[in-house]
């Protein structure tokens, strides 16, 4: 396994601390914050922490393989770098740095349609699996050229994000008078996002013509509809709690959605996954891949593509370590029998996985 003999960031807590020093308070609150009371955000963490492992022993785990195939692409880990529109606030190279790190490492990168770096620049930097995420900011006359541009740049798969009919009401942003990075993009109208329907989505899918992912599915009923519409990946997400407050944690949605999808699509998930153990839990319950968003932003803010690469190495070590310790040598062996429900250890917030931060971190970021 690739090792960095003297990594600048031996664990993601060091990434977090450096990122916080490198960006303004306003940007920091923008990355980390969520809608309203931030209950959805906290439930994401709570739901992951509500499972403990049931490890099996005396199995030969001297060789552990954490590679997988996502939509037919060989991937080094069951991860995807989730779409983030404002990576230019973290680092001048923004989404280009994420795309390059993902491609060099061997996991997919999802480029947000509201990123400041162009699809062609990000695609040129990413030699691997390129996915394009679309927010709807116009009718088909606006959508078609966006999709043409992405296709021409080399993006093979489309994500349509469907959990943001309205922009979340985020107290931290309001208190800081934060100007939304994507609010000033000329000629873009959010009303089209609010008006999107299953029929509209099907029209976009027909025009795209390639594999398609729906990001932001949160119920078994919508997962069933997605499958009926021929969707390739049901991506379970609540947008990190940034849109609807008082939603469920994504890990609590996973079992019923796995049942509803019944193997007819891949299931990806995100929402507070920051450690290898978090990822293995989701895979035990039936997810095929886990999306990494805030940890990606912290990494890029801490040290651009090099720090992102280090984060992926750290996650690889953590995933393989966890698999060995529970007695699994390949991802296909993971199943719900490795998990049991427990009362989680509090507190639960976006940084509560990091036990060694100072006391001022422990209740979020005030
Ligand atoms: C700063 C920021 C920007 C985001 N931008 C987008 C975006 O452009 N498109 C999208 O589909 N999701 C976007 N998301 C949501 C993430 O892709 C992801 O669903 C969510 O943050 C949950 O993952 P996490 O808990 O790992 O952060 C954004 C999230 C953050 C924190």
Question: What is the topological layout?
Answer:
Layout: H1 12-22, H2 25-32, H3 39-49, E1 51-53, E2 68-70, E3 73-75, E4 79-81, H4 94-105, E5 109-112, H5 119-125, E6 130-134, H6 140-153, E7 157-161, H7 171-175, H8 191-194, H9 198-208, E8 212-217, H10 220-228, E9 233-236, H11 250-261, E10 266-269, H12 276-284, E11 289-292, H13 294-326, E12 339-341
Parallel strand pairs: 4-11, 5-6, 6-7, 7-8, 8-9, 9-10, 10-11
Antiparallel strand pairs: 1-12, 2-3
Helix pairs in contact: 1-13, 4-5, 4-13, 5-6, 10-11, 12-13
The chain binds flavin mononucleotide (FMN).
What's a quick, concise take on this entry?
This protein has 366 residues and is an alpha/beta fold.
How many helical elements? Answer: 13
CATH superfamily membership: Aldolase class I
Tally of discrete structural domains: 1
Q: Please mark out the parts with pLDDT under 50 across 5 or more consecutive residues, or reply none.
A: none
Mean pLDDT: 95
CATH class categorisation = Alpha Beta
| Main structural class | alpha/beta
Strand order of the largest sheet: 4-11-10-9-8-7-6-5
CATH topology: TIM Barrel
- What pattern of helices and strands is seen along the backbone? HHHEEEEHEHEHEHHHEHEHEHEHE
Query: Radius of gyration, Cα only, in angstroms?
Result: 19 Å
Q: Can you describe what's shown?
A:
This protein has 366 residues and is of the alpha/beta class. The chain has a single domain, classed as Aldolase class I (TIM Barrel). Helices cover 40% and strands 13% of the residues. It is built from 13 helices and twelve strands. An eight-stranded parallel sheet has the order 4-11-10-9-8-7-6-5. A two-stranded antiparallel ribbon has the order 1-12. Strands 2-3 form a two-stranded antiparallel ribbon. The mean pLDDT is 95. Bound molecules: flavin mononucleotide. Flavin mononucleotide binds next to β11 and α13.
